[in-house]
Amino acid sequence: MPLSPEQQAEIDTLRATPKPTLRAVSEGMEAHLYKAIPVLDHGFVRVIDYMGDDAAICQAARVSYGKGTKSVSNDAGLIRYLMRHWHSTPFEMCEIKLHVKLPVFVARQWIRHRTANVNEYSARYSILDREFYIPEPGALAAQSVVNNQGRGAVLEGAEAARVLEILKADSNRAYDNYEAMISDEGQQGLARELARMNLPANIYTQWYWKVDLHNLFHFLRLRADVHAQYEIRVYADAICSVVADWVPAAFAAFEDYRMGGVTLSSKALDCLRRMLKGEEVTQENSGMSKGEWREFEGVLGE
């Protein structure tokens, strides 16, 4: 199950005992507090705490007191200006703390974003649960023939069934041996910090992850992208749904300028200008490599 009975009881208690506050709150985020959003087969994302809202971004940009603005439209316009011109500091005034349950191999990819504060479940101190990520059949794919770090065609039929059976059998066999090694019945038992080395990378771990909005947007720009690995992208998508309610003006600007926008090199911009003038531009006369040209054509939708 995504949440243990103890975690669910903690959430129920916290939601049943709200506390008054003098600080600014985001009504959209208040609705998400402590609730777990299921991800994958056993994972989840839930908001533990947050600081700031759209108004806090504008307040920091203006270095003023109170709301620091005359209208919501003024705030939205300022936020779009900040996003458009890559002014990052005002977005750092907002922070979020998440509780995430995720497969270890996803965590190892996630931790490459080194601009957050992280505290992970300790397998030296505690015993990991028998919970493994087993992909849905539609998520099983062959190696891409054009991208060394991507997927190709989906596996089907007997081949997909064979892979799933291997994943399930190996995961459970490794956990059986893990339990056998740490058991102190009739033996001393191996230390947990050593026994964990035999566990597979698809076992679930948990952590608290605290990050400011600027660095969160950087994470989401990469991990919510259609080219990101599916298993981390679904976590990014879940976080996007939260951020959209927390800071709607900032998230709308982020979607427009970062997720929906592109950055062109000087060569690509020159090619575009030449095309607009009616000139025939090819990869050979563009000054770009084949890879750059292919990506440029992708931007143009050709």
Automatic annotation (TrEMBL):
The residues the record assigns to binding dUMP are 109-112, 120-124, 196, 223
Question: Which pathway, metabolic or otherwise, does it act in?
Answer: Pyrimidine metabolism; dTTP biosynthesis
Entry note: cofactor: Binds 4 FAD per tetramer. Each FAD binding site is formed by three monomers.
Could you name the domain of life of the organism this protein comes from? Bacteria
GO biological process, alphabetically ordered: dTMP biosynthetic process; dTTP biosynthetic process; methylation
Q: Which residues are involved in binding FAD? A: 89, 112-114, 120, 212-214, 218
Q: Under which main EC class is this enzyme filed? A: transferase
Q: Which InterPro entries match?
A: Thymidylate_synthase_ThyX, Thymidylate_synthase_ThyX_sf
Q: What is its EC number?
A: 2.1.1.148
- Catalytic reactions on record: dUMP + (6R)-5,10-methylene-5,6,7,8-tetrahydrofolate + NADPH + H(+) = dTMP + (6S)-5,6,7,8-tetrahydrofolate + NADP(+)
What keywords are assigned to this protein? FAD, Flavoprotein, Methyltransferase, NADP, Nucleotide biosynthesis, Transferase
Kindly list the cofactors needed. Answer: FAD
Q: From the UniProt record, list the coiled-coil ranges.
A: none
Q: Where is the active site?
A: 223 (involved in ionization of n3 of dump, leading to its activation)
Example of a GO MF term: flavin adenine dinucleotide binding
Q: Which NCBIfam families match?
A: thyX
Describe the task this protein carries out.
Answer: Catalyzes the reductive methylation of 2'-deoxyuridine-5'-monophosphate (dUMP) to 2'-deoxythymidine-5'-monophosphate (dTMP) while utilizing 5,10-methylenetetrahydrofolate (mTHF) as the methyl donor, and NADPH and FADH(2) as the reductant.
Assembly and oligomerization: Homotetramer.
What family is it from?
Belongs to the thymidylate synthase ThyX family.
For this entry, the protein name equals Flavin-dependent thymidylate synthase
Organism, as annotated? Actibacterium naphthalenivorans
Encoding gene, per UniProt annotation: thyX
